[in-house]
Amino acid sequence: MSVVFALATPPAKSAICVFRVSGHGCLDKIKQITGCELKRARTFYLRSFLDAGGGVIDNVGVVFFKGPNSYTGEDSFEVYAHGSLGVMSLIVDVFKGLGFDEAPPGEFTKRAFLNNKISLNEAEAVVDIIDSSSRESVYLSSKSLSGTFTDLVVGFSKKIDFLRMGVEGEIDFSDEGEDFLDGALVGGLKKIVVDFSLFVDGCVNKKHYSSKNKVLFVGPVNSGKSSVFNRLLGFERALVSSVAGTTRDLVESELFYSDASFSLLDSAGIRETDDLIESRGISIALEQIEGADVVVGIFDSFDKNVLNKFSKLTKGKKYLTVYNKLDLGPPNQEVFDCLVSAKTGEGFGELKNKLASFFKVFDRSDYSFLVRDRHISLFNSSLKCLKDALLKIEEGGGLELVAEDLRLARGFLDEVVGVKTSDSLLGDIFSNFCIGK
Amino acid sequence: MDKFDVIVVGGGHAGVEAAHAVSRAGMVCALITFDKTKIGQMSCNPAIGGLGKSHIVREIDAMGGIMPLATDMSGIQYRTLNTRKGDAVQALRVQCDRKLYKEAIQKIIKQTDIYLIEAEVTDLIIDKSFVKGVIANGKEVKAKKTILTTGTFLNGLMYTGSEVTKGGRVGDDSAIPLSKKLYDLKLPMGRLKTGTPARITMSSLNLSVMEEQPGEKPTPFMSLTNQAQEHQKQMPCYITRTNKNTHKIISENTHLSAMYSGNISGIGPRYCPSIEDKVFKFSSKDSHQIFIEPEGIGIDLIYPNGISTSLPKKAQQEFIRSIEGMENAEITEYGYAVEYDFIDPRTNKKTLETTFLKDFYLAGQINGTTGYEEAAAQGLVAGINATLSIQNKDPFILNRDEAYIGVLIDDLTTHGITEPYRMFTSRAEHRLLLSQNNAEQRLLTKAYNLNLIKKERYQNYLKREEAYKNFVKNTLEKTKIKTFLNKNNDTVTLEEKRSLYSILTRPDVEENKLIKIQEDEKVFFKRASVEIKYKGYIDKQLREINKNKKQNNKKIPSSIDYKNISGLSNEVVEKLTQSNPETIGSAAKIEGVTPAAINLILINIKKLELQKINA
Predict the structure, then answer these.
(1) Cα B145-B149-B155 angle, rounded to 5 deg
(2) Which of A17, A277, B62, B437 could be B443's S-S partner, Cβ–Cβ 3.0 to 4.6 Å?
(3) Could you give the CA distance from residue A238 to residue A235 in angstroms, rounded to a whole number?
(4) Which of B42, B91, B43 is CA-nearest to residue B71?
(5) Which residues on B lie below 8 Å from A404 (Cβ)?
């Protein structure tokens, strides 16, 4: 089977991230990635992870497993890198450059089963995974989808089909005395490239929009924002100490709860400050309020002035006030939306529910299902082929190469809009042109 | 002879290719036909090759087949199509002398030890589910394998206006008893139709007002094996066009056409519509092209390609005489539509053996295809596999990335047909790998290993390949130059000297002016320049092919029941059940079958295997 890779940890900033790679021949590539050979299986090596040009991306840990002694039963290896989003995307680029494929959901487990590594019972669970992912993909099939997004992709695929109709007609029926291309190929192609580029750029923005679900923690200095933040995550993310102003930059992490995912942002406390570095942190926080979906104010006491000040800062955003120091006793006024204690964990169930309820609406928007990294990468691949086709025409390359680029461009959209079979393409040619001597 | 190795029923293009392949491999073969003098008859237009089809003929050539030989023995006009496009989609089309072609085929067949039996086959000898031979003219003829290539003769009916005649071709009977027999077996069968135009005497035409289309010079060859022989005398073709008046006459008579009267239930090919269809469906077009194909040297007859029809005779004559240059046309035979039975090819394995009866193969139009080339290719595949099966050897199956023949067989057996199936280059997703000029590189070694070609030819091929490699290494890679002419005839100067090989990768280079190439190396140079141009694309395709090879070749056990696989949609279950794909690769190509569905099938196959082990 082909070599596949997947990020085994959530695609979010974290201390480390783990990539898994599996498939015949993958071990041969380790040398290319790390610049040297690893001798022993199941041994942790510290190596540099190199990009295609030999530049160092990150210092990483690498462990390899020789099939059948691995989870999947195939040759496989794991890479432990630093958990920055930049590093992750560079590593993904390297893997793709090596011809590895992104693993679909359940792929590693499926392979483990096919290679007799796990039992039938475990495999039934895999069926469920695949089943659910296919149910999800129902949203992507053109039949059941409404929404401008898919309409647009279907529209582009139809435009590509239309160009292919002319090009394939011109190749297969050149002796019919028909003008298949009508001089419109270059113009048509240019227009698709421009429109599709705009669309793909838009996708990236929409992706940010849909994955934003941003929850920003603000509050007076030392009110316990980072403690609440860490408690929500279930582990220590932000540096917490009792020294006022410890959190300098925004700390971002991801929380999955009740089928919503939040991006949590912990900000520096807001106060008048002389510390330049920290004041920069605070201005970032103020900017972030603009980009946040929900602002959570964390307070350790009731102070009418402070509460009003924060209420103004949020400028009409969805706003949740949380009293943190419940372990020290309830606040003297019942004005808070939520009462918690970061120290004891009291009240966090309710806080999570309240946060999740804010996002139910967002998650059902048109775009959130569709625009995933995977789709954006498919669209970009498709766009590249369209540009290649245009270049081929301009260079005076053969029409059959233009046809190949267009075929590939359309192929990348298959997953979203369905396959265009050659027979159906021929059908379009026959109904639009008078073929047949 | 009381028992043959193989019986081939039918002497058309599929039949002769099948019989010849069987005999090349050293088996004893009988060919049974209605009429020996009709063996190798071209029943439609007298041309071989064209887009997607010359590719098939060259593949047949590389497998030692006879269609390309007969083509060169009878070719009267050669033209390469798509010369302004790249190598992969260029195609040679050859006009043949109809009579010489048939004679060439008969001559080649007579040089073998194939037994020719003139008889009508009315029944099959079936023992349990094995076919043991046929009943021909009432007598038993037995064989280990039987190949049926009945063309349009199964229950063939010809229509001209309201006239209906039994037969698969003008002047010939149709095979009704055999057809009934197959219906009795309750096979999945259907009806297709196709049509032909009237035949007209050449002397009655005014060719001087038509556009003359001469053949290509120097005249190429279809077969790569007998290029030393001389060509027949070459003849031009002519082009004329229908006009508004023609269309008016046709429109007024369309209701009388057999195809519009509702008598015909068969499905016709969309790419080969009758002239009444063209006028009706493309009413905005004032004129359609007609290609005048000479029937042969010294034969006073032409085939007007583009005006196939089933209009009544009077209307045919009237509209034909309205066409420029045809005002005094003498019609010798009127056009007709022919309707015939076919058997759903999805019931065949990729060897073309049927799944409903063992030792029984189907090839040609009976599988729902059209075209001489498609028929011949199937005959070849059936003949080779019948032989291999007798020899207890692995079947011969070509992949889609290896040959158009592979695409053809896979399309037929996996997807079935919705209209008479014809090959087009766009059906081959690996088109760039499958040029008509590299058929030998793709197939000759296989053919040699199957005993289908002579040792001498194979050795010559190996020598040529060696010489080519040396040419690339010694001439293209070692010769380094600093300046070259681009396509605008401007001199391009490079920063440093580069090899010819690397300069050929540039899109702007004028290849013909790059270096002086000796005459005998011109073919090599052309081949190298094509391979260099395609390299990036081909590497991409090969990566794709290799990536999925193991999974694609995984066999789906016939015991699989798609209904029992939870998670598959009803639509997918239905499609898979109907197509019954042999491999995961075939299943994945069925419309609507998603990668997720493929994963489910893989898991279920594994489950079946495990159950088998545990049982």
Answers:
(1) 125
(2) B62
(3) 9
(4) B42
(5) 431-432, 537
Rg (CA), chain A: 27
What pLDDT is attached to residue A366? Answer: 36
What are the tens digits of pLDDT across the range B251-260? 999 888 887 7
Residue of chain B whose alpha carbon sits nearest to that of A415: B594
Q: What confidence score (pLDDT) does residue B410 get?
A: 93
Q: Which of A5-14, B338-347, B356-365 has the lowest mean pLDDT?
A: A5-14
Mark yes or no for CB contact A99/B543 under 8 Å. Answer: yes
Q: How far is CA B206 from CA A61, B201, B214, B591, in A?
A: 84, 11, 17, 50
* B86 to A400: CB separation less than 8 angstroms, yes or no: yes
| Spans of all domains in chain A | 4-114, 122-202+367-417, 221-346
pLDDT value of position B593 = 77
| CATH number of this structure's domain A122-202+367-417, picked from the four choices 2.60.40.1240, 2.40.50.140, 3.40.190.10, 1.20.120.430 | 1.20.120.430
Are the beta carbons of A171 and B306 separated by less than 8 Å? no
Checking if the pLDDT of B98 tops 80, the result is: yes
* Contact flag B547-A2 (C-beta cutoff 8 Å): yes
User: Is B387 exposed, middle or buried, given 0-12, 13-18 or 19+ CB atoms closer than 10 A?
Assistant: buried
Chain A residues with CB-CB distance to B250 below 8 A: none
Interface of B with A in 462-521 (CB under 8 A): 487, 507-508
- CB distance B208 to B371 below 8 Å: no
A125: contact with B, CB 8 A cutoff: no
Nearest-CB residue to B591 (from A175, A177, A421): A421
* pTM of the shown model: 0.74
Q: Which CATH superfamily is domain A221-346 in?
A: P-loop containing nucleotide triphosphate hydrolases (3.40.50.300)
Asked if residue A309 has pLDDT above 80, the reply is no
User: Is residue B564 less than 8 Å (CB to CB) from chain A?
Assistant: no
On the question of pLDDT at A255 being above 80, the answer is no
User: Does residue A132 register a pLDDT over 50?
Assistant: no
Task: Read off the pLDDT of each residue in B547-575 and give the average, rounded to a whole number.
Answer: 81
Residue B106 half-sphere exposure toward CB, CA atoms < 13 A: 15
> May I ask the CATH architecture of the domain A4-114?
2-Layer Sandwich (3.30)
Is a pLDDT exceeding 60 seen at residue B611?
A: yes
| Segment among A108-117, A295-304, B227-236, B590-599 with least mean pLDDT | B590-599
Contact B525, B479 (CB under 8 A): no
A:366-425 residues touching chain B, CB 8 A cutoff: 395-401, 403-404, 407-408, 415, 418-419, 421-425
Question: Does residue A207 surpass a pLDDT of 60?
Answer: no
